[in-house]
Amino acid sequence: MGDEVILLNFWLSPYGMRVRIALEEKGIKFDNREEDLSHKSPLLLQMNPVHKKIPVLIHNGKPICESLIVVEYIYIDEVWNDKSPLLPSDPYQRSQARFWANYVDTKMYEIASMIWRSEGEEKEAAKEEFLEGVQLLKEQLGDKPYFGGDNLGLVDVALIPFICYYHNYNICDNFINEARCPKIIAWSKRCTLKQTVSKLFPEEKRAKEFVSQKRKDLKNE
Asked: What Cα–Cα distance (Å) separates residue 137 from each residue in 1, 17, 211?
């Protein structure tokens, strides 16, 4: 009997997409279960009683929560054999990968939330701050094809959903573009050439309609 792998997820979540990319990259079969975030399932509340959020990976009945922790778990050799490690073998480089993945997860997320919720000058300032963060990440990428070197690494998996949603779907006025961020856009295109990444992006029209409705709901609150 094989492993039972269940992912509690939401179709547009960049955090859920991270986990799905990791699972696809590893070739792990899993049951992707969509959650209604307005009416969370008893299983989600049971498996993540602290934060009550997706994504949650349930491996043989045991839950793993928080997307970056889940992604690292998926790549642990003792869990599933891995020929393409997510993290460098060098301890210092490994610490730096974790630092920048956490930077994406905290600082970049904070700014992205501001872009989402603000208007006018406040929104424009948040866009500029986000681009400053992208510039810092570009320096970390250097001349490598991926942050992980020749293969996707932790920072790639953490960042790619954010960049692709803003660039590919033009959700916020195309402020991330080739003119302003040529190296990062070239990197994102390399990532999306991988079927394990491109196949997971939702249909553009559906994504834009959902985002548009959410913004209307926020204005009416």
From this structure: 43, 20, 26
**Ranges of H-type helices in 66-203:** 67-75, 91-103, 109-117, 120-141, 154-168, 182-193, 195-198
* pLDDT one-digit tens code per residue, 186-208: 999 999 999 999 999 888 888 88
| Integer Cα distance of 182 and 204 in angstroms | 22
Dihedral sign (CA 17, 128, 102, 44): negative
The full length of the chain comes to 221
**CATH number 1.20.1050.10 given to 91-198:** yes
d(CA 99, CA 114): 22
**Residue range 106-149, pLDDT digits in tens:** 999 899 888 878 889 998 999 899 999 999 999 999 999 999 99
pTM for the predicted model, two decimal places = 0.91
Q: CATH: 3.40.30.10, 1.10.340.30, 3.40.50.2300, 3.90.76.10. Which one for 5-75? A: 3.40.30.10
pLDDT at 78 over 80: no
Structure tokens at 60: 């043989």
Q: How far apart, in whole angstroms, are the C-alpha atoms of residue 85 and residue 6? A: 22
- Domain ranges across the chain: 5-75, 91-198
| Lowest-pLDDT range of 60-64, 166-170, 202-206 | 166-170
